[in-house]
Amino acid sequence: MIRPSRQYIKILLLALSLAAVCLFWNCAAEGPPRPPRIQRPAKVTDLAVAQVGRTLRLSFNAPLRAMDGRRLTKPIGVEIFRQVTPPGESPSNVFVGVKPWVSISPRNLARYQHEQEIVYEDRLSSQQFDRSVGEIFSFMVVTLTRGFRGRPRLSDPSNIARIKLLDVSPPIQGLQVTQAPRSLNLQWATPTQSLTGGSLPPLVGYRIYRRQEAHSASTTKLVAETQKPSFSDTNFQYDQTYSYTVRAVFEKDGYTAETADSVPASITPRDIFPPNPPQGLTAVFTGRAVQLIWKPALAPDIAGYNVYRQAQGQSPERMNPGLLRTPVFSDSTVVQGRQYTYWVTAVNLVHHESLPSRKVTVETR
């Protein structure tokens, strides 16, 4: 009988061990190996460009999914392509050259990302702006991930965003905000000259932006558009600080541009004005009492009402010991055969009392 060699026994034991591991991990159920997933980002379709003063502001939403419809798991980079067309020439949809104008690596993308939106600003110097007025700027973006050995996986080119550089005015001057009883009133000076000193394009209006300083996560938001150099903001709360900026809007050849932000104007409105007098007061004698009713005040800070009465030949007196919460009152202290005059006031939360309502006179008979 031939005894197996020690080498043969080692090989046999190794094979049995591998078979046991394979059975434990269910190797027999696995199919053929799958190729690694290629994560090409989906095409950007919402690229936009806007002129704000001497700055061209590009914005688009970062793709969340790959071309296969599945969610991207790799960080993306961005390549921006730019084409400048001189005045009088038609821009082309074909971008000449292969090199991107700007490349943003995944490591640096957070500098330009605001939630899902990516914003890149092309800030022109005053010299660049002066010589570029009237030129058409065209932009396109491509996003990418990195595959095996850093090989780029490029998305399809985005839509093309274009803008014609307009000679807008410098920032709005003289912005002021003041408090009125029911509004915050803004006014400013109308622009008269352009950034280059030339003639201004047609002025189509103004955009008012507001920031609520008390909110830690607050952002500047567009709150209104107007064609006049003034605006009244009625949507505010007392004891909150608001900061306003205004931009002028110009339009020419189908392109729109804004000026840079004005110097901010801030205000913290206080409840210093009395409410308006109540309206619609009526009084009826029912035989036992005088019934009064009036329209409820519309102001949100009304705390209640006071009712006043003056009997013939006597001094006025307040009829309610505490503020009335509803716009009704019944006076059962009247005496038959006399004449009484009534009026009502409104009181707000900081105890400012309005002027009297109109007076009504009732005879108890």
Describe the secondary structure blueprint for this structure.
Layout: H1 6-24, E1 48-52, E2 55-61, E3 77-85, E4 102-104, E5 113-114, E6 117-123, H2 126-132, E7 136-146, E8 152-154, E9 161-164, E10 176-179, E11 184-187, E12 203-212, E13 221-226, E14 230-233, E15 242-252, E16 255-258, E17 265-267, E18 282-285, E19 290-293, E20 302-311, E21 317-318, E22 328-331, E23 339-348, E24 360-363
Walk me through the structure:
The chain has about 375 residues and is mostly beta strands. It folds into 3 domains: about 50-165, Immunoglobulin-like (Sandwich), CATH 2.60.40; about 175-265, Immunoglobulin-like (Sandwich), CATH 2.60.40.10; about 280-365, Sandwich (Immunoglobulin-like), CATH 2.60.40.10. Helices cover about 5% and strands about 35% of the residues. The protein has 2 helices and 24 strands. The protein has helices spanning about 5-25, 125-130, and strands at about 50, 55-60, 75-85, 100-105, 115, 115-125, 135-145, 150-155, 160-165, 175-180, 185, 205-210, 220-225, 230-235, 240-250, 255-260, 265, 280-285, 290-295, 300-310, 315-320, 330, 340-350, 360-365. The strands form 5 sheets. Strands 1, 2, 5, 6, 12, 13, 15, 16 and 17 form a 9-stranded mixed sheet that branches. Strands 3, 4, 7, 8 and 9 form a 5-stranded antiparallel sheet that branches. The mean pLDDT is about 90.
Helix percentage: under 10%
Order of helices and strands: HEEEEEEHEEEEEEEEEEEEEEEEEE
Mean pLDDT: 90
Cα end-to-end separation: 140 Å
